[in-house]
Design brief:
Blueprint: H1 3-26, H2 36-56, H3 58-61, E1 73-80, E2 86-93
Antiparallel strand pairs: 1-2
Helix pairs in contact: 1-2
Length: 96
């Protein structure tokens, strides 16, 4: 799973918690057939579980500084050559 997908998972979890909290604590509408407060509580619980799962697997998905499956790292260095020009060095590390 890529870093972008992991960040989206964390963001979606936080949004679910926020929407659930709004439904649970800030909405005072009564409805027939379903309870908004219960739906809010369910969203809070699902968002919290999803957030915990994302945090637990963060390092295996990449996270900060790369993890087990981490992709590749590219490093570029530009230095002066002393004669008014520049020398570029590029190094790419691809894990085996």
């Amino acid at each position: 799973m890529s870093d972008k997908e992991n960040v989206m998972g964390v963001a979606l979890s936080i949004v679910m918690i926020a929407v659930g909290a709004i439904l649970r604590f800030a909405v005072s509408v009564t409805t027939t057939g379903f309870n908004l407060h219960t739906i809010g509580l369910i969203l809070i619980i699902l968002g919290a579980v999803s957030l915990l799962i994302s945090i637990v697997f963060w390092s295996s998905w990449g996270g900060f500084g790369g993890g087990a499956g981490g992709g590749y790292r590219r490093q570029r260095r530009v230095t002066q050559d002393g004669a008014g020009g520049f020398v570029e060095e590029e190094q790419t590390n691809i894990p085996a």
